[in-house]
Specification:
single chain, alpha+beta, 10-stranded antiparallel beta sheet, 8-stranded mixed beta sheet, 12 helices, globular, disordered N terminus
């Protein structure tokens, strides 16, 4: 058993546009500029009109349990059942006959209640000419008699020919103005999981009709009445639980854009999700769903029932064809972002039906899919201490700006010596602002090491010291963006303007500076760029690269020969792989699609973004997935308002310490400058000793469970048998014959 002292004396300071359906558009025609930029443009002549669904078949939006006929197709503990009447299916647990249904179960609707009818296996938002159609598999295929179910050795294929009206559905030959799409949903039971894939095609050949978005299984497992332990798992920050049995009148529907919002599209803003997964628990059983294909085009949506009049549900929506409305013009992508969608549903029961159990199943699937490495973290004698340093940054004086030096290479060396003398070891230095332009770095293909920091000679001396002390020196690089123009190679937004984004910078915010807007690069020559970076830096002294924008920014490239987000994610992941060959690699942000060859990830969220309540709270879902596979750290501890609580959160979530310091103060108020290293180095050293003792030998262990044992007291368990208790309260807490002091933590082996 290892015990910590109570933490003391830690003080610190702390364009988007909604899609508007009344904007104008006309007949879709390609223009010469549109073909070059990856979009086709439509000049407006009339408003876009939303066309009501002419057919609403109430009976087809619900399933009776008795109607779900067993197919005899099983895998592990699950079996496939089909409802021929509604053209839907359910997944049955063979041990208990409990069922997860694609449509809400009618026999679970409380007497006297008539819930809204919106459940379907597939629902589409279709744009055709000047009209918008919301159509679905139940009302516009099954009801029209244009659906078909075919069983296969491992599952079943559900084919829905979805039309905008019944008259079109009855035709044997289509006019060029008819609108109809074939959506095929394949369900396969493999290795105890249900794999659900979805493809689509235009069956009428109408060149002016396309699917803008597609919702898949929007009511899978939906329920109205909640048991005490029921929850929805959403990918908010580190992960969050929605307790469906806890009434919360202020709750509003949530949406999470996988890998963040696309800077190349002016679409509705959603919170970012770094992992493409979600889950649900109901009546003692749970599922986790991992989006395997189409993840970069996905938004995960969650709805909590208000009382018993609506459903608790969680599902993915996919941007099939990116569009943008602006100035009475409809801009439409030439290609589709999700030609194939694939989800893997894994099911858990009993004591495994927890968010920790869902994380374990998710991690196993990510390893199977080669998204995460099969290797464990290589442990050393000391816990990694992540340190972000700033070389040079932009400062403004009135209308003028200049490059200000905050930490030279010699000063960084001095700082490391002092940290080493205070007992801080295994330091991973992320050195930002060392290339041309400082923190507002220029195009990396032309960037040079800043001479004002000491040039390559002093950089080499710094690296020699770091390597001798078994420290890693990472040069921070932006390979997707630049603070200057790319001279005609910029990615273009869907309305044909140059794409850009403004990065988040804690140092700039503290200095009351605005980081430079960064232009986004065309992705087609990314592999060539990476080769150039490796060639240009081959004589530098450093351990590896810290990939800055790659870990948190993903965009569609509408420049000539560009690509949409799904293809972009694969392109970026493959292009950056050589940067890890023979080097250690760090990343900022942690979008899962690019983690395969990364050793350390910083700025991984340790909390949710939405407001917490009794019905909504943060959990370490991401950390439960990652621990033991990569080292990770949260945002710099010294930038948080409550330093003491942040230190405890790092222990609870198994995170390495991360501080962001400068050798020179960034403000005139040196004593209160949160980035001036002299102000928090002693607190950091005290904390590091405790964190190293508690966490270092667990770095390669799996985090197996996490739960609240009492109000404000949490326990994290590891597969070694170790448990770490964290007490956020002002009172000591007794457990297992030991005492967890107030505002402290305790490890029990």
């Amino acid at each position: 058993m290892k015990k910590t002292s109570k933490l003391k004396n830690l003080i610190s300071k702390s364009a988007a546009a909604m899609l508007c359906l009344c904007l104008a558009a006309g007949i879709l025609t390609s223009c010469s500029g549109g073909e070059e930029s990856g979009v086709k443009t439509t000049k407006s002549v009339v408003s876009l009109n939303s066309v009501a669904n002419p057919s609403v078949a109430a009976d087809l939006h619900f399933t009776d349990t008795a109607s779900l006929a067993d197919t005899g197709i099983t895998s592990g503990l699950i079996g496939l059942a089909i409802d021929e009447k509604t053209g839907s299916f359910g997944i049955k647990l063979t041990s208990s006959q409990q069922v997860w249904s694609a449509l809400p179960l009618r026999d679970e609707i409380p007497e006297g209640k008539s819930p809204a009818i919106n459940a379907s296996v597939v629902s589409l938002k279709i744009i055709g000419g000047t009209e918008i159609f919301y159509r679905n598999s139940q009302d516009n295929s099954v009801a029209y008699g244009t659906s078909q179910i075919t069983t296969t050795p491992t599952g079943a294929d559900f084919v829905y020919n979805i039309f905008t009206d019944e008259e079109t559905a009855k035709k044997t030959a289509f006019d060029k103005t008819d609108i109809g799409f074939r959506v095929t949903v394949k369900v396969e039971l493999v290795d105890g999981s249900a794999n659900v894939s979805c493809t689509h095609e235009n069956i009428t050949g109408n060149p002016d009709a396309f699917i803008e978005s597609l919702d898949l299984l929007n009511s899978f497992g939906a329920y109205m009445l909640s048991s005490e332990d029921d929850f929805l798992l959403v990918p908010d920050g580190s992960g969050a639980i929605i307790k469906t049995a806890v009434y919360d009148e202020s709750f509003e529907p949530l949406s999470f854009a996988v890998y963040g919002n696309d800077p190349s599209q002016l679409s509705e803003e959603s919170s970012a999700a770094i992992i493409p997964a979600f889950g649900m628990k109901h009546n003692g059983i749970a599922f986790v769903s991992l989006i395997q294909k189409g993840d970069a085009a996905a938004t995960i949506k969650a709805q909590k029932a208000t009382g018993i009049s609506e459903y608790n549900l969680i599902y993915p929506s996919f941007s099939v064809t990116p569009v943008h409305y602006e100035n009475e013009t409809l801009y439409v992508s030439k290609g589709t972002a999700s030609d194939e969608i694939s989800l893997c549903y894994r099911f858990l029961t009993g004591n495994n039906a927890t968010y920790a159990g869902l994380a374990s199943a998710c991690r196993e699937q990510l390893i199977r899919n080669s998204v995460l490495s099969t290797k464990n973290v290589e442990t050393t004698n000391y816990l990694p201490f992540c340190l972000t340093l700033t070389g040079a940054t932009t400062k403004s004086v009135g209308p003028f700006s200049y490059l200000s030096t905050l930490t030279t290479f010699e000063q960084a060396n001095d700082m490391l010596i002092r940290m080493r003398n205070k007992g801080i070891n295994n330091i991973g230095i992320r050195y930002t602002g060392v290339f041309s332009g400082g923190t507002d770095s220029k195009d990396i293909s032309n960037a040079k090491i800043l001479s004002r920091l000491g040039g390559t000679e002093k950089l080499g001396e710094l690296y020699e010291y770091a390597a001798a002390q078994k420290m890693n020196l990472y040069l921070d690089v932006n390979i997707l963006s630049s603070a200057t123009d790319f001279s005609g190679t910029n990615a273009m937004s869907i309305n044909k303007s140059d794409s850009s984004y403004t990065p988040v910078s804690a140092v700039a915010e503290y200095m009351e500076e605005q980081p430079a807007e960064r232009k986004l690069r065309s992705l087609n020559k990314l592999s060539k760029l990476v080769a150039g970076i490796l060639s240009d830096t081959r004589y530098y002294g450093f351990s590896g690269f810290c990939l800055n924008d790659v870990g948190s920014v993903l965009y569609s490239d509408f420049s000539s020969g560009g690509m949409l987000r799904d293809t972009a994610a694969d392109t970026v992941a493959k292009a950056i792989a050589p940067l890890s060959t023979g080097h250690s690699t760090m990343a900022v942000g942690g979008n899962f699609y690019m983690l395969k060859n990364i050793g350390t990830v910083i700025n991984v969220p340790l909390k949710a973004t939405a407001s917490q309540s009794g019905a909504y709270f943060t959990v370490p879902f991401v950390q439960l997935v990652l621990h033991g596979i990569v080292d990770y750290a949260g945002n710099p501890i010294n930038t948080e308002v409550n330093l003491e609580e942040t230190l405890l959160k790092n222990i609870e979530f198994g995170a390495c310490p991360h501080f962001e310091w400068n050798y020179e103060p960034v403000t005139d108020h040196t004593d209160s400058d949160i980035f001036y290293y002299d102000n928090t180095i002693n607190a950091a050293a005290e904390y590091y000793v405790q964190a190293n003792e508690a966490l270092n030998d667990l770095r390669d262990a799996r985090m197996t469970d996490h739960y609240e044992v009492d109000d404000g007291v949490f326990c994290t368990e590891y597969d070694t048998g170790s448990m770490i208790y964290v007490n956020y309260t002002d009172n000591d807490y007794s457990t297992l014959g030991v005492v967890v002091e107030a505002r402290s933590f305790l490890r029990v082996n």
